[in-house]
Design goal:
This protein is α/β, with parallel strands linked by helices. About 25% of the residues lie in helices and about 15% in strands. The structure holds alpha-D-glucopyranose (GLC) and calcium ion (CA).
């Protein structure tokens, strides 16, 4: 049965319908829009859906295949919209459902697919179900939709277990009953305003199937699934102490999966198999993309088995430093792990949760994910080196077979905004750790569009929910457009070449440069050399005469590939 008729994609999308094994998402470049920071149409300082619609031509020009929008649903915005109060409503901050339909239509007309964010691990504490649960008794069906437990100890005043919130502090909050006495505790892996659902509950399962259909009926091409490794918790909720070195999103960096009792439990896969079925009721190739911070890659690949999701963000790749042997190892491991289940790797270097890679790749000290950097960070990244490495890293990523996600602003070479004043910060991480972790605001600053304009053209009034650095004129899109040396033109060229040579559907063949800081491989007719070392490398002899089609920075001669540079050659 097919539900999608009225809102099904327009002609340009249907025309790109593919043969088996070449579905669009296997090779797509998907651009993440962080709606509150993309473009603000009504001047209140918060980006909105009409702002997105008005700027779609810029994305078309960039050459992306799809957009993924971080949440724009009704929400008290305690975690920038990842605290959803109504999964079927647009928050008035961002516009209306009509604005959403118009944006989707405008994207589809341009051949751009639309992916929305689904947040199933938790809702907002303002969701009507949580409010009903608070008003109901322990043991009631209302409480059963969330993870309410009695406390430990004689008066129940110790949390049910020792779990900590990903944002810092305890993962349990005790409620106060109507008569003013302390009541049960509820679990929140994130902020206390984000209570975790109980996924063994049939109401929860049914509600999310309906939510999927609600957005599929409106014509969306897929969903990015928030905390797709969460949802199911181990029976008995056993105590757990994370290893010291763990990234705050739960990556262990270990060779064997050693997952906390709240991540990566077997039961999650059954849920995604159910959702896979829901998607197949619709025409076209609709997708689910997992945000699953699990190691190793062979464990992550479980999320993209043929009857589950289509994509999973390759976070081990994102977390790999700019280092030849480490990159080669993670690329090989990725391709092996994902192809073992018939899935592409989905490469990514930046998103709204990590330090932008134009800054991250120049950090020399360990910076656990989610901690961020700020005015007191001693290891301040060198801006020029960071951008140079970021461009080299992006050129490497975009030459790899598989899909790729870009995060808004990386095509402008934006660095992390380090010097945000304390009183501007909004990430719950900052508050829950009493300022010991800066959190993620530095990668969420509104985009610069025009140099010299109020708020760099983000909003006409000059309002901006986070202050933009004073020196961003040169990063503005309009400053870079048409300048062949700019980061923007470098990205558009890379995307155009990637599409022309079908690199996303290709296969990788390594060459040995005799120096492990040099990555050298062919993908179909394109040969790529990346120098991750800190000195010049001689161009491999066989490539000196080859046509250079892309360089991550302008080069003067053919004989040398300088440090932190990636070059693409045509080697038909
Ligand atoms: C995901 C989101 C992050 C959010 C968290 C809780 O990791 O990407 O931004 O804070 O989930 O929903
Ligand atoms: Ca606005």
């Amino acid at each position: 049965m097919t539900h999608a008729t009225a809102h099904s994609p327009d002609a340009p999308l249907d025309a790109s319908a593919t043969i088996d094994g070449a579905e669009w998402w296997r090779s797509a470049v998907i651009y993440q829009i962080y709606p509150r920071s993309f473009a603000d149409a009504n001047g209140d300082g918060i980006g909105d859906l009409r702002g997105i619609t008005s700027r779609l031509d810029a994305l078309k020009h960039l050459g992306i295949d799809a957009i993924w929008l971080s949440p724009f649903f009704a929400s008290p915005q305690k975690d920038a919209g990842y605290d959803v109060a109504d999964y079927r409503a647009v928050d008035p901050l961002f516009g209306t459902l009509d604005d959403f339909d118009e944006m989707t239509q405008a994207a589809h007309t341009r051949g751009i697919r639309v992916i929305v964010d689904l947040v199933p691990n938790h809702s907002s504490d303002q969701h009507e179900w949580f409010q009903q649960a608070l008003a109901a008794q322990p043991g009631s069906p209302e409480r059963a939709r969330y993870m309410f437990r009695d406390g430990r100890g004689p008066n129940g005043d110790t949390a049910p277990n020792n779990w900590e919130s990903i944002f810092g502090g305890p993962a349990w909050t005790r409620i106060v009953d109507d008569d003013g006495t302390p009541g049960q505790w509820y679990l929140h892996l994130f902020d206390s305003s984000q209570p975790d659902f109980d996924w063994s509950n049939a109401d929860v399962r049914a509600m999310f199937r309906d939510v999927l259909r609600f957005w599929l009926d409106r014509g969306v091409d897929g969903f990015r699934i928030d905390v797709a490794h969460g949802l199911v918790k181990a029976d008995g909720l056993p105590d757990y102490t994370p290893p010291q070195s763990a990234g705050s999103m739960g990556g262990t960096g270990k060779a064997d999966a050693d997952l906390p009792p709240y991540f990566g439990q077997d039961g999650v896969h059954e849920i995604y198999r159910e959702w896979h079925q829901v998607l197949t009721e619709y025409d076209g190739e609709r997708v689910l993309c997992a945000e699953a911070w699990v190691d190793p890659l062979s464990t992550m690949a479980l999320w993209v088995r043929p009857d589950e999701m289509q994509q999973a963000f390759n976070f081990p790749y994102l977390e790999t430093p700019w280092n030849g042997p480490a990159l080669r190892a993670v690329i090989d491991e990725s391709i092996a792990a994902f192809s073992a289940v018939g899935a592409p790797s989905t490469w990514v270097l930046s998103n709204h949760d990590v330090v932008r890679h134009a800054s991250r790749l120049a950090l020399t000290e360990d910076n656990p994910q989610g901690h961020g950097i700020g005015p007191k960070t001693t290891d301040r990244p060198d801006t020029e080196l960071g951008l140079r490495r970021a461009r080299a890293a992006s050129a490497l990523m975009l030459a790899l077979p598989g899909g790729a996600y870009l995060y808004q602003g990386e095509e402008l070479g934006l660095p992390e905004a380090i010097d945000l004043p304390d009183d501007a910060r909004q990430d719950p991480t900052w508050f829950r750790t009493h300022g010991t972790r800066y959190g993620r605001d530095g990668c969420r600053v509104p985009l610069p569009w025009e140099p010299g304009a109020p708020a760099y053209g983000f909003s006409e009034t000059g309002a901006s929910w986070l202050p933009q650095p004073a020196d961003w004129d040169a990063y503005a899109r309009a400053s870079q457009l048409g300048d062949p040396a700019s980061t923007l033109e470098f990205y558009s060229r890379a995307l155009w070449l990637r599409a022309t040579h079908q690199l996303g559907l290709g296969a990788l063949e390594w060459h040995d440069a005799g120096d492990d800081s040099i990555l050298w491989f062919a993908n179909g007719p394109v040969t790529v050399v990346a120098n991750t070392g800190d000195s010049d490398a001689a161009t491999p002899t066989s490539l000196i005469e080859a046509t250079r089609i892309l360089t991550s920075v302008p080069l003067s001669g053919d004989d040398v590939i300088p440090a932190d540079t990636t070059v693409w050659y045509l080697t038909p």
